[in-house]
Amino acid sequence: MKAARILEYHKPLVLEDIPVPDIQADEVLIKVAACGMCRSDVLLIDGFFQGYGDIPPPVIPGHEITGTIEKVGSVVSKAAGLEEGDHVVVSPGWGDGVCKHCQVGNTHICPNVRWPGFGPYGGFAEYIPVPARYVIKVAKHLKFEELAPLTDAGLTPYRGLKKIRDAGGLGPDRVIGVFGIGGLGAYAVQYAKLLGAGGPVVALARNEEKLQVARRYGADHIIAVEGKSSEDVGKELKKATGQDKFDAIIDCSGATEMMQLAFSRLAIGGHYADVGFIGDRIDVPLFPRVHGEQTFHGSFWGNNADLMEVMALAAEGKIQHTIETISLEDINENIDLMRDNKIVGRAVVKF
Predict the structure, then answer these.
(1) Distance (Å, rounded) from C-alpha 216 to C-alpha 143?
(2) What is the reported pLDDT for 279?
(3) How many of the other CB atoms lie within 10 Å of CB of 70?
(4) At 69, phi and psi to the nearest 5?
(5) Which of 81, 142, 255, 324 is the most exposed place for a label (fewest CB within 10 A)?
(6) Same fold for the pair 2-152+302-350 and 155-298
(7) Taking a C-beta distance cutoff of 8 angstroms, is the pair 134, 90 a contact?
(8) What are 288-324's pLDDT values in tens digits?
(9) Per-residue pLDDT at 246
(10) What is d(CA 299, CA 254) in angstroms, rounded to the nearest whole number?
(11) How far apart are CA 191 and CA 185, in angstroms?
(12) Count of Cβ atoms closer than 10 Å to residue 168 Cβ
């Protein structure tokens, strides 16, 4: 099969022909139809994750995976309802099944988790073996290139906003800020409208083209933050919504300066969910967080239940996409574009 692999960190991916992987008895072999390109792929190639754990090469990146079942393992239960030819998406976090997080369904934060695209097999290849319990059947009328990014870019902000909602942070009188309108932020705007109980949604970004995407997907207001102080942003926000701070923030960037801006604009009793990590350190005053009783939610990817809910929304036509399809041969060129923040929406490798 064709595959794009990391043979050495900080170097371009190498396109190679390698054997199609065997599957274990409890796995299925997926013929990859499409795989989304994520900022995390760039971070992986650039060695970011080596600071948190050893991922020895060769590595096949790509974790936003959809395709068809090519082969079903011998002990996969009939109750799973999986057959050759089924259209599926791959759930991102493969847990050990026995830890306290797996026991309540949060397999993606299992301490012994395996993630596709962060090891020997990933979506930048024509085939991938996947434990049968981590594939989800999807409606065949949905396009593969639109399904792929929903497994991360479309899943991650959904879980983050659910956390804010379930903590009581959303409501008709609560202003929601979506910081960073990239691959995740374009979906976050739509989820904020779906889950926000009528609260006004404000999109913030540096790039005007991306802000127009947010406007198209339902943002009530947009604010360009390039070159503006926190006070400038507060004035624009007050003019648009009647208040100069946000009751809820979903941060799809995680860039240091963007997080400092966002925290400075978080209201008393506000909720902040971060799902991005372009940066890796922040320096914010502690006292406003404490006396304002603010809540910070770390939110990482999503579990099977979250992904099934996203797939249901997609099947009902409630999610819109900004997609550019590319070939595997063009992968390195597009990684460079993503590294330079020049991709609007999501680039998707289509096989």
Answers:
(1) 21
(2) 75
(3) 18
(4) -75, 120
(5) 81
(6) no
(7) yes
(8) 899 999 999 999 999 999 999 999 999 999 999 999 9
(9) 98
(10) 12
(11) 10
(12) 12
pLDDT of res. 232: 97
Stretches in the chain below the pLDDT threshold 70:
none
- Three-state SS for 21? coil
Residues linked to residue 221 through DSSP beta bridges, in sequence order: 202
Q: Give CA–CA dist 167/23, Å, rounded.
A: 41
Check: CB of residue 23 under 8 Å from CB of residue 129.
yes
pLDDT of residue 345: 84
Query: Taken in order 33, 331, 343, 200, is the CA torsion positive or negative?
Result: positive
Antiparallel, parallel or unpaired: β 27-36 and 127-131: antiparallel
**pLDDT at residue 344, rounded to an integer:** 86
C-alpha span between 27 and 71 (Å, rounded): 9
Does the predicted model carry a pTM greater than 0.90?
yes
Return the CATH fold of 155-298: Rossmann fold (3.40.50)
Burial class of residue 111 (count of CB atoms within 10 Å of its CB; 0-12, 13-18, 19+):
exposed
Show me where the domains of the chain are located. Answer: 2-152+302-350, 155-298
Handedness of CA 167, 173, 177, 178 (dihedral sign): positive
Pick the CATH number of 2-152+302-350 from 3.30.70.2860, 3.90.180.10, 3.90.1200.10, 3.50.50.60: 3.90.180.10
Q: Which has the closest alpha carbon to 183: 202, 210, 164, 209?
A: 210
